[in-house]
Amino acid sequence: xxxxxxxxxxxxxxxxxxxxxxxxxxxxxxxxxxxxxxxxxxxxxxxxxxxxxxxxxxxxxxxxxxxxxxxxxxxxxxxxxxxxxxxxxxxxxxxxxxxxxxxxxxxxxxxxxxxxxxxxxxxxxxxxxxxxxxxxxxxxxxxxxxxxxxxxxxxxxxxxxxxxxxxxxxxxxxxxxxxxxxxxxxxxxxxxxxxxxxxxxxxxxxxxxxxxxxxxxxxxxxxxxxxxxxxxxxxxxxxxxxxxxxxxxxxxxxxxxxxxxxxxxxxxxxxxxxxxxxxxxxxxxxxxxxxxxxxxxxxxxxx
Length: 303
Hints:
Layout: H1 8-32, H2 34-39, E1 41-44, E2 48-51, H3 54-87, H4 89-101, H5 106-116, H6 120-133, H7 138-148, H8 152-166, H9 171-230, H10 240-267, H11 274-294, H12 296-299
Antiparallel strand pairs: 1-2
Helix pairs in contact: 1-3, 3-11, 4-5, 4-9, 5-6, 6-7, 7-8, 8-9, 9-10, 9-11, 10-11
């Protein structure tokens, strides 16, 4: 998938798409589960009204996920596109230096390398070369790349290409130095990723551990005590549905914030973690929904 520049117009379109998708679960609740919604409303503390139906709550969480999912998917695909560019920068500059050393002009070397090295970077350079053929200076055509793809390494690479084009007889030295620099940067990024990935895994593990503990407390202690209450036990104030809802909401907040933390750790932006938030919210929602479907009958607890 090509890089999609997220300007204000496209951000608005993604938000509109997310809003349209988010309305689907809400409409399903208001039409198909309206009775369940109304019967599950509970007043807490005399003022706060919450929904205690797990199915309704899961659909509402799905609505939240769908709201930001289009942006999260496009942002993730853009990051993958940029990663494919930065990964080949060392090889690109090395091949470009060898092409210039063989006697090709800088423009001819660019064309030769892009023809022999397919990928996202070659596609961007080819786009710039098309503008050159239409009469635009090479430097100006290359500057279009970082204007469209906002990434520090891409901007540095374009700056080096423009400098090499203007440096006369030192083109090969500039390109070989660039290849070494980007090889070192790639090595640093790989080392950083190796260090950070365990922390991201820890974020996912914390969400799963919370889910397991919450369901254990619910189905080993709270729901059986609720069954005792219904048969005349002494826990008259215990409401299993309320506890389940509180734990579901807490799990959802843990999952959402955990995803943002994962994005900040791995990519330096909290918004880059929205895709992780969507995945973790899905894990929590699926866990509670499956538990209600398969574990509740085993405890003989029916609302």
